[in-house]
Fold this protein.
Amino acid sequence: MTDASSKESKSADRWRRLGDRSEALLLGAVTFWRHVRELWRRMVNALHEEENRRPSVWQSSAPPRRHTERRDAPAPIRVSAQDGVFNFTVDASFTWSSDRLRREALSGYAHYYMPDVIGRLTHLAAEHAGRFAPHRAAGLEAKLQQVLLKEVPWHYPQGDRVVECVPQVRVRPDERVMRIAMPYWEQLIRIGSEFDVRKRRAEYAEQLSRKVVTVLENLGSSLATGGGQRTNEKLASDVEHLLAEHKATLRRLEDLFRETLRDSDIFGRATSGDIPKQGPDGKPPEAPQPADDSKSTDDSSARPRSA
């Protein structure tokens, strides 16, 4: 029994010593990690202080640079016109900019917010497109630019940074409307060109009248002072010279006008009085076919000559 009790006491002493050593090791490890944590905290604070000092130096030496990026809409925006049958096509582009973002980050935000700005622009265009006739694309474009001028730039905050977007638009009519209106636009261009020619003629006629009046006034003053030796033939010669000069100018103007129309060849052989009229179905008639030169030549050769 004595041997058994001695063995139990030795085993208890051994476990007691092992527990004391474990406790001492644990206390040492805790103390070590406390020192490590304190050193880490001091190092992090020192790095933060250094980082806080650097931006002030950078900002004072170089201001932040503003980056800009321009992107086109991936597809045209189509909205219904006034009647709901024809559409307007809106070609849009967007200019993205920011003062405190790198170029790569700005490009990422532009890609991310592109669906949102396209949706806003589509809603805005659809709101105003219903008030314009299908051929009034220029009016819709002016209206959209006027509205956007009051709203832009569109802002997208990102914390202490802001991404700005400025849209630009260009409106085109429906292709079907362009085909229908093309003959009328061509005639408007022709009428405008002829109006310019007639206006120039009137200006030259006014200049000629002033010159004739000046000649007559000079002749009258010469006769009144008694020193006028000019005869009626001389007066007629001066007037004829002015008329010849005026006619030559008009001929040059007409030749230039005909040459311009012939080189452009956008109106065919139609005359100035060929204003397109609507047919029974409300559509403009087809353009007349050009005359066959060979047929006209044969007809002229077969026609008897007058004595």
About this structure: The first strand starts at residue 67 and ends at 72. Residues 178-276 form one domain.
